[in-house]
């Protein structure tokens, strides 16, 4: 028999009942049921329930085991009673009666964090005891998912005729979008190498050298502040380059790769097969950003015509200048003075002088009434035209920003 295992902790089924097997792993959970000790034994692949009672020659040793002991056991596979079958795990039909046990790695004192369960721990604790943190089911799943995604990307790129080439990590500094990480040179005191922010120059060198189709799961190093969606120091990206192609060729290449990837790992979620395309100008106009979340149905619109020559002198004067406009941000269900004042205060906190607003409500006579300072200044005809353009109704509001778009676009977004 192998020195450590004959099966993994996810491999045993009813077909192995009666066999003597060897398993190695960690004590995931231990339960003492009045002289019968049950242990969930865990390895990278899954969990097998093993048990021991006073009839076992190693019962005294098993009694000493605690969570996260690393052990090897020899035992006999037994079928569980029908009422005790665990359908949630592949090994749920069986259990292993322990005949021999060897402690491969013990535990001294209390664990700083528990592997079993879903408890939350401070980040400092998780990082200090990373070897324990990485044993947890969620972390194991995350790491396996990352590995599987990378493998899938590689297969898809190879199938499209790309080849993977590794580019240098220690290189010269080059201007990119963030600060370089610098590495002091031993051979040239006082001088420094840089870690690449992206393989940009190297992949372009490959293209002019005639390599045609390149890709890499590329490490990128950037000395920038933390963001919610990336590490502050390094991250990996699918980097690619193609020769003798136009924009449409790039779209037709990348879209199937990412669509297939999300279909493969999306756990049944719907994945759009046709990608909407939006120009940079339209993205800036409608969303105020070049990376809009298209799940958000709210779109800004230009309403300059309704304010040009109007009774609202501030906007009217602004529109007399070149390159200016008034944009409206629809706010469905935002039709209350309290909400509008709160949003106006937020805009002022972002550095703008404020946002004009109109909100619509049902009047006492049953008609639709436009309220707010702007409504009084521009009159009912213009407010009604704005409402119809934006498709708003009673209980809705609209906010207005005027000037050169570059000055308010980001905050509007």
Q: Characteristics of this structure?
A:
12 helices; 5-stranded mixed β-barrel; extended; 413 residues; 30% helix; 5-stranded antiparallel sheet; alpha+beta
Explain what this protein looks like in three dimensions.
- The strands form four sheets. This protein has a five-stranded mixed beta barrel.
- 30% of the residues lie in helices and 25% in strands.
- It has helices spanning 59-63, 123-128, 130-133, 137-159, 200-208, 247-265, 280-287, 304-307, 313-318, 337-349, 373-390, 405-412, and strands spanning 20-33, 36-42, 47-52, 70-79, 94-105, 163-164, 181-184, 192-195, 213-221, 234-242, 301-302, 325-331, 356-362, 368-371, 397-403.
- It has twelve helices and 15 strands.
- It is of the alpha+beta class and 413 residues long.
Q: What's the quick description here?
A:
This protein is an alpha+beta fold and 413 residues long. It is 30% helix and 25% strand.
Q: What shape does the CA trace take?
A: extended
Are there runs of 5+ residues with pLDDT below 50, and where?
Answer: none
**Total count of strands:** 15
DSSP helical segment count = 12
Mind summarizing the main beta sheet? 5 strands, mixed, barrel
**Percent range of helical residues:** 25-40%
Structural class by secondary-structure content? alpha+beta
Rounded to an integer in angstroms, the radius of gyration calculated over CA atoms is 32 Å
Order of helices and strands: EEEHEEHHHEEEHEEHHEHHEHEEHEH
Strand content: 25-35%
Q: On the 0-100 scale, what is the average pLDDT?
A: 93
N-end to C-end Cα span = 65 Å
In what order do the strands lie side by side in the largest sheet? 1-2-3-5-4
């Amino acid at each position: 028999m192998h020195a450590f295992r004959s099966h993994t902790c996810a491999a045993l089924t009813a077909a192995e009942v009666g066999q003597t097997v060897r398993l190695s792993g960690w004590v995931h959970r231990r339960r003492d049921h009045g002289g019968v000790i049950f242990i969930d034994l865990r390895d990278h692949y899954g969990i097998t329930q093993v048990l021991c009672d006073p009839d076992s020659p190693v019962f005294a040793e098993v009694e000493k085991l605690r969570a996260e002991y690393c052990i090897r056991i020899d035992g006999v596979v037994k079928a569980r009673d029908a009422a005790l079958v665990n359908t949630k795990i592949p090994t749920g039909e069986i259990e292993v009666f322990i005949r021999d046990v060897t402690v491969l790695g013990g535990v001294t004192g209390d664990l700083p964090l528990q592997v079993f369960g879903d408890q939350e721990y401070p980040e400092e604790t998780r990082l200090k005891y990373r070897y324990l943190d990485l044993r947890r089911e969620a972390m194991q799943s995350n790491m396996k998912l990352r590995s599987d995604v990378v493998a899938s990307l590689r297969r898809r790129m190879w199938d499209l005729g790309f080849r993977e080439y590794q580019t240098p990590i220690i290189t010269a500094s080059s201007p990119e979008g963030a600060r370089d990480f610098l590495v002091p040179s031993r051979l040239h005191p006082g001088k420094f190498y840089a870690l690449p922010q992206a393989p940009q120059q190297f992949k372009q060198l490959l293209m002019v050298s005639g390599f045609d189709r390149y890709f890499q799961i590329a490490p990128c190093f950037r000395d920038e502040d933390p963001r919610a969606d990336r590490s502050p120091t390094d991250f990996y990206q699918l980097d690619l380059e193609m020769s003798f192609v136009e924009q449409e060729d790039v779209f037709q290449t990348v879209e199937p790769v990412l669509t297939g990837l999300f279909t493969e790992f999306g756990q049944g979620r719907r994945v759009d097969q046709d990608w909407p395309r939006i120009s940079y100008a339209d993205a800036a106009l409608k969303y105020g950003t070049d990376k809009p979340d298209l799940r958000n149905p709210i779109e800004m619109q230009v309403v300059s015509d309704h304010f040009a020559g109007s009774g609202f002198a501030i906007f009217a004067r602004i529109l007399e200048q070149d390159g200016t406009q008034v944009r409206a941000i629809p706010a469905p269900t935002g039709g209350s003075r309290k909400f509008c004042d709160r949003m106006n205060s937020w805009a002022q906190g972002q550095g703008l002088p404020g946002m004009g607003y109109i909100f619509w409500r049902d009047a006492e006579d049953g008609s639709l009434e436009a309220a707010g300072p702007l409504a009084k200044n521009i009159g009912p005809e213009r407010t009604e035209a704005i409402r119809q353009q934006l498709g708003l109704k009673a209980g809705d509001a609209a906010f207005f920003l005027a000037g050169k778009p570059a000055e308010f676009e980001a905050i509007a977004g």
